[in-house]
Every structure is written in structure tokens, then in C-alpha cells.
Amino acid sequence: MLPYLRSRIQATGPLTVAAYMKEALTNPRWGYYMKKEVFGRQGDFTTSPEISQTFGEVIGTWIVHQWRATGSAAPVRLIELGPGRGTLMSDMLRTMCQLGDIGPKLSVHMVEISPYMRHRQRTLLCSPKDNIDKASAEPRPDKEDSATGTGYEGAHEDHSDVGIEYQTRFGVPVSWYLSMEDVPPGNSLIVAHEFFDALPIHQFQHTEHGWREVLVDINEPVNSPDDKNPAPLRYVLSPKGTPALAYLEEFHKTSGRSNIEVCPMGGAVTQQICSRLVTDGGMALLVDYGEAAPRPNFTFRSFQQHSLHDELRDPGNVDLTADVDYSYVSYVANSHVQCFGPIPQGYFLHALGIAQRVKILQQKASNEQKKQLASGLQYLTSPKKMGMRFKVFVMTPKQCVAPPPFVLRTPGSD
Fold first, then answer.
1. Contact 253, 204 (CB under 8 A)
2. Which of 44, 209, 222, 311 is deepest in the core (most CB within 10 A)?
3. Interval 362-383: pLDDT, tens
4. In this predicted model, what pLDDT tens digit does every residue of 53-107 receive, in sequence order?
5. DSSP secondary-structure letter at 353?
6. 2 near 8, Cβ under 8 Å?
């Protein structure tokens, strides 16, 4: 990917951080999410559903409760944005179907732009027979991609599987889409887990000349003995204002701030969610790392093999992410829907009974499985792990009552 980025910068000038992030993560040929396995121990980061099945089970139970509490409208569209390997959907769906009444009214809609990830999700969720019957819709490994070894060269832009209805192992129909706007109308239960943090951000820095946007440029080599391995790219500031400054002026209070990140695409997705909830009803659940107010410093960073990495090195082969600014999500959504949260993930999961669920599973588990369940619970809920870093945020139509546990006293509300 680096030669492509160099050529683009040479042709049109430095890239915004948002443009760099979008190319590095979702470029159809070289993008990080488009070509290889990135989750779990063998990847660069681990998500909550990969740590313990109880995460998806608790969320699935909560969704059914919300659906019943708001009138049990049918048909029900269970929509997941950026479904990863499909683990969360598998755990949610198994639990929801066991609860009875929602299963026959349910259809699943996965919003995923990566052909590689759609294939992984389908392999997990669907019966082998259904995959074989519709094999013509699968990305075709015409020859192995020498760069990734995935066998997906020539398939990175293959979207022939989009919109086709498959059957899950649970008897619920499932389809894949490139955008939430393509999902058929209907009562919508929307889940976005670690989705917003991967949406491109703009960065702004305050200077003596006013606000300037942070850009990514080619790092021209300098013969310095102190820099034996210079990064191929570098940050520079725009010499004057850029069009993206309009987002800064629209929302963010800049007084006393020197660094600000803005995620316009996050605002656009939030607007799509709100439009759907207002028109069709339902709810949206966001789980991601972030804060109720923007952090004072930049949060854009990179991970490789579960460790922090220079975000300007090896684009296309490392994860890029930034904290979610929930105050911006609320700002976009508040005039259309009700917003609840954010609250800590640990508080949310404990309030919904994850510890009790772990105890039930441990009753029939081996000693090793008991240890894994206990360890998973600790990792998901401890303030020193994911429990405080990750936040839960919910949107519902205006007329809905507050969902649990948001009706209860939240930590720090005294």
C-alpha cells in the first residue's frame, strides 16, 4: 500500500488523517480489513465476543427484553454494523432463538464491506449445505495473493454475495449489505460493537495562526545519524484552513483546547441510525472505547500483534483506531431520538447478570473451562481491563422508556 499512498500524495498533496485512515483500513485491494484475519490471538487485537460467549449471550437477552418492552413489533431486523468474525452475532442469535417468541419474526442483516470478512462470517453463521448451494456467490480464490497468502487476489472487489438471503444454523435468514441504507425497512435492532472507533477522523491543532488541520505527507529522508530508521510518512500542518474545519466550527467548543479530533462519518452513520429508528422503531446499541466528552489529546493510534505501533508505518498491515467521542454522537442524535449513556461496559454487564450466567456455565464445566470463564468475566468487567475503558450507549425513539440498566443509578451519579 505504501507505494500507492506515496503516488497519491505526490499527485494531489498531503492527505487528511481521515483519508489516510480510510485508505489504510478499507482500500479495496490493500486495506487492512479487506484481505486477512485481524482478530484474536493470531491477529492484532481481541474483542469482547472473542473473550467470552457470555458477552453475546447477555447482549442477546437484553435485546429481546427491549423488543418485548417496546411492543414486540414484527418483522424484526437484527442489524450488526462491522460484524468482525461473526462471533457476537452467533452468540446473540443462539440466545435469542432459545428465548422463543422472537425467533420466527427475526431476520439478520450484516453490514460489512470486506468480502473476506463476509466469507468468514458466513462460514460461522450458516449451515455448510447453504454455503455449498450458494457457492457461486462466494469470493473466488482464482489464485493466491502472494502478499497475504489468503487466496483472495481478484476477490477484493467481489460483492456478488451482497443481498442474497442465506439461512443460519439457527433457522433465521441472514443477508449481507455494503451499507445500512440498503437493509429493508422494519423494526430495527441495531448493534455496533467496536465499529465507530474504526471510522475515519480529522485532526486539528491550534496554532498562533488559528486552527490548522493535521495532514499526512511523505517523509523526505534527511541524512541524520540520530534517525537510522525514519518512518516513510510524517505529520504536517495545513498552511491554511481546510474544508473539514467546518465540522470543528459546527460542534466542538474549542476554547482552551489545542488538539481536537472530529469524526464526520460517525455523525453520518448516527444520522442513518436515527432516521431508521424514527421511521421504523427499534433501538441501537453502541459498545466501544471512548468517553462522554472528547479527550484533551489526540487518540489516533495503531496496533500490531496486540501492541501499540507507529500509525504511519506499514499502512494496510496494522490496525488504526481512535476513541469514540460520545458527546458528538449525542449532539447529532439528540434532536431525533433519546440517548442513554455512555456507561461503563463493566457496570452494564454486571447489572444484566453476566456474573450469574458465568456461574451457571461453570456448574457443568471442566476445571480448565471454569478458569477460562472466570478469567473472561474479569477481563470484560474489571475497571483495569475492559470494564471502564469500553462504554455502552443506547438510542431509542423518543416515546420509549429508559432501558435497563440506564433506569438505575449509574456509578458516579451522586
1. no
2. 311
3. 999 999 999 999 999 999 999 9
4. 999 999 999 999 999 999 999 999 999 999 999 999 999 999 999 998 999 999 9
5. T
6. no
For the cut 90, the answer to whether the pLDDT of residue 42 exceeds it is no
**pTM of this structure:** 0.90
- The residues facing 110 across adjacent strands are 80, 176
Beta carbons of 163 and 118 less than 8 angstroms apart? no
Q: Which residues pair with 174 in a beta bridge?
A: 108, 166
Q: Nearest 10 degrees: CA dihedral of 190, 116, 176, 98?
A: -60
Tens of pLDDT, residue by residue over 157-178, are 678 899 999 999 999 999 999 9
Burial 305-339 (b: 16+ CB within 10 A, else e): eeeebebbbbbbbbbbbbbbbbbbbbbbbeebbbb
Which one, of 168, 64, 23, lies nearest residue 107 by Cα?
168
Distance of alpha carbon 47 from alpha carbon 38, whole angstroms: 11
Whether the CB-CB separation of 45 and 373 falls below 8 Å is answered with no
The SS3 of residue 99 is: coil
CA angle 124, 127, 133 (to 5 degrees): 120
Binned at pLDDT 50, 70 and 90, residue 307 comes out as confident
- Pairwise CA distance, residues 127 & 123, whole Å: 8
Residue 1: CB atoms within 10 Å: 17
In angstroms, the CA 212 to CA 209 distance is: 8
